[in-house]
Design a protein that fits this description.
Blueprint lengths: L18 H5 L1 H10 L6 E5 L8 E7 L6 E7 L5 E5 L14 E2 L3 E2 L6 E2 L5 E3 L21 E4 L2 E4 L7 H12 L8 E2 L5 E5 L3 H8 L5 H4 L1 H6 L6 E4 L3 E7 L20 E8 L3 E6 L2 E11 L2 E10 L13 H18 L16 H14 L1
Antiparallel strand pairs: 1-10, 2-3, 2-5, 3-4, 6-7, 7-8, 9-10, 11-18, 12-18, 13-14, 14-15, 15-16, 16-17, 17-18
């Protein structure tokens, strides 16, 4: 790729990523290697492995990264994330969640313990310098935060930095007690580049124009974006009369009418906290023209669902999809190259574009 991307750190001078960023299939492939391979992904909760000893296979961003992972838990109750690929001939080790005391390859019988350590292998008595450390399964960095699990193939930053930032605002909530609600969770297919969906999420600029109902409950004039190294938070203040957080004394926003905390974690994760609980949105690239967005709902107080900033989430999502798909179509035009940022309202988008340019560069 001959083209280099640069985002001026001064938002008052900066231009957005050019249209080629979203159109070029070579750039899309480079994003997989340079961005997603070096950042963190939310993969679920500890409920994936309820048994004392067992395995749980999954594919990291299936259809995009195709990284076969294996969660394991032994008698110590510690969850590990291992490669789900046998170190002999690269066979997939586990295809279904199962209760198990070890990992055995069904191809040639190589055996590993639940920590991923090589245990035995038939017909290898004459092999020299065997087993080697690399004959054990590769172990991936795994973070457990409030029973939520994050993993990264090769992280360029510490997810603990993000966790501490989220704890600053929502640490008072019993997040580990939130209950997953499948009836309020679903996937959406968006005919647009994945980064455009994030662009839209990262600014409240469009709220008065696109989300009339949401604009009726949020105080647009007070809408605030706070930037950090690899994440940011948008604070949605209520106009009054709507459900807001019962913030404890000593909280950074104590005394304020906060209706929502919208966290974005680079590059594609959103954690939206409301008085009723949490909506997690994972943006999953499929192709440069198609994206899947998974909405996962965790309920804390079901009596508050349906009011405030956390109401009508499906309607808000459909409205977002309409404008994001419109932008994607517009970027195909030969008449458009790049745009400018609103210094007041698009700090989050500028931050995102700067990180993308940095990682790809």
């Amino acid at each position: 790729m001959s083209q280099k991307f640069f985002i001026d750190p001064d938002i008052t001078k900066a231009e957005t990523l050019p249209a080629d960023f979203y159109r070029d299939p070579e750039v899309f492939d480079l994003i997989r290697e340079k961005v997603f391979n070096r950042t963190w992904q939310w993969i679920g909760s500890k409920d994936l492995l309820p048994q004392q000893e067992g395995v749980y296979p999954l594919t990291l961003l299936d259809g995009f990264m195709k990284e076969p992972l294996l969660l394991t838990k032994d008698g110590t109750d510690e969850i590990r994330c291992l490669s789900n690929v046998c170190t002999h001939r690269a066979n997939i080790l586990a295809h279904q969640p199962a209760k198990s005391k070890s990992i055995i390859c069904a191809y040639h019988g190589r055996r590993f313990d639940l920590e991923g350590k090589f245990v035995s292998m038939p017909e290898f008595d004459e092999a020299e310098n065997f087993p080697r450390p690399c004959d054990s399964l590769h172990k991936y960095p795994l973070k457990d935060w409030r029973d939520f699990l994050f993993v990264s193939p090769n992280p360029a930053f510490d997810i603990q930095e993000v966790v501490e930032i989220m704890e600053k605002h929502v640490g008072f909530m019993p997040i580990e007690d939130f209950k997953f609600e499948p009836t309020l969770s679903k996937d959406y297919l968006v005919n647009a580049h994945w980064a455009l969906y994030c662009d839209n999420y990262l600014e409240g600029f469009h709220i008065p124009f696109v989300h009339k109902d949401l604009n009726n409950v949020l105080d647009y004039g007070s809408y605030t974006t706070i930037l950090y190294d690899h994440c940011n938070v948008q604070v949605g203040y209520s106009k009054g009369g709507e459900e807001v957080f019962d913030l404890p004394e000593g909280h950074v926003d104590y005394g304020k009418q906060v209706g929502a905390y919208y966290y974005w974690v680079f590059p594609n994760m959103m954690f939206n906290f409301y008085p009723w609980g949490l909506s997690i949105n994972i943006v999953k690239p499929i192709t440069k023209d198609k994206t899947k967005v998974s909405f996962l709902t965790y309920v804390y107080d079901e009596t508050k669902i349906g009011s405030g900033a956390g109401a009508l989430l499906d309607k808000v999502e459909r409205e977002d999809e309409f404008v994001v798909e419109g932008v994607h179509q517009g970027l195909m035009s030969s008449a458009y190259t790049t745009g400018r940022f609103s210094p007041k309202r698009e700090k989050g988008v500028h931050h995102f574009h700067g990180l993308l340019a940095k990682y790809i560069g």
